[in-house]
């Protein structure tokens, strides 16, 4: 296994403790199912540029592939394939335990994954906060979300996007839930 959807949020919604905290969460979940040894796990998250640091692109944090889920299905062979013709959908974007994550039409809907990214996996430019304060806020703000099940309210490109469907209504667990999110993340083995 070199790819999974986190089975839980660390508990503070969009406040993941920054990229380091999000990566630790992915690593801990992988370790708990025996997939941490020999792999370094990173969360698929972008951050915005700040006065002291440049933006970080999710696509640059996840290694070069290929990536397979807990059931052995390859969801992408390379970074370019992952951001074009990948095999991410409700049946393949499973947790580290191999469990299917609720999607659109299920109760509760949990198909909105935290990414903070554009469709090409790069950071979102501009002044709007689309990363819950670079993953340190659990109140005000917003995060760009992707649909792990590739389903939305419309049959358009954004609704089918696994990594850039729409922004959240806020960064708390309650605000995320109101848009169909449980604050879950995509986790990738870098090596």
What this model shows, in words?
It is built from 4 helices and 8 strands; from the N terminus they run βαβββαβαββαβ. By secondary structure, the protein is α+β, with helices and mostly antiparallel strands. The strands form 3 sheets. A 3-stranded antiparallel beta sheet has the order 1-8-2, covered by helices on one side. The protein is globular, with a radius of gyration of 15 Å. The termini are close together. 47% of the residues are buried. The model has no long low-confidence stretch (mean pLDDT 95).
Number of strands: 8
Give start-end ranges of low-pLDDT stretches. Answer: none
**Strand order, biggest sheet?**
1-8-2
Shape: globular
Task: Give the helix tally.
Answer: 4
The H/E string reads EHEEEHEHEEHE
In angstroms, what is the radius of gyration? 15 Å
N-to-C span: 11 Å
* Proportion in β-strands: 5-15%
Average pLDDT figure: 95
Fraction of helical residues: 10-25%
Question: SS-based structural class?
Answer: alpha+beta
Largest sheet: 3 strands, antiparallel
């Amino acid at each position: 296994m070199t790819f999974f959807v986190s089975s839980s949020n660390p508990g503070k919604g969009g406040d993941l403790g920054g990229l380091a905290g999000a990566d630790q969460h992915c690593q801990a979940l992988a370790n708990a199912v025996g997939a941490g040894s020999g792999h370094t796990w990173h969360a698929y998250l972008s951050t915005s540029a700040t006065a002291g640091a440049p933006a970080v692109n999710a696509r640059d944090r996840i290694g070069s592939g290929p990536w397979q889920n807990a059931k052995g299905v390859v969801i992408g062979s390379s970074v370019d394939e992952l951001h074009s013709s990948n095999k991410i959908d409700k049946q393949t974007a499973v947790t580290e335990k191999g469990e299917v994550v609720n999607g659109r039409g299920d109760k509760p809907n949990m198909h909105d994954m935290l990414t903070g990214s554009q469709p090409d996996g790069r950071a979102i430019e501009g002044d709007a906060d689309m990363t819950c304060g670079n993953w340190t806020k659990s109140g005000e703000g917003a995060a760009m979300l992707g649909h792990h099940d590739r389903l939305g309210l419309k049959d358009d490109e954004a609704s089918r996007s696994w990594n850039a469907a729409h922004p959240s209504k806020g960064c708390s667990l309650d605000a995320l839930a109101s848009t169909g999110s449980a604050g879950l993340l995509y986790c990738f083995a870098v090596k």
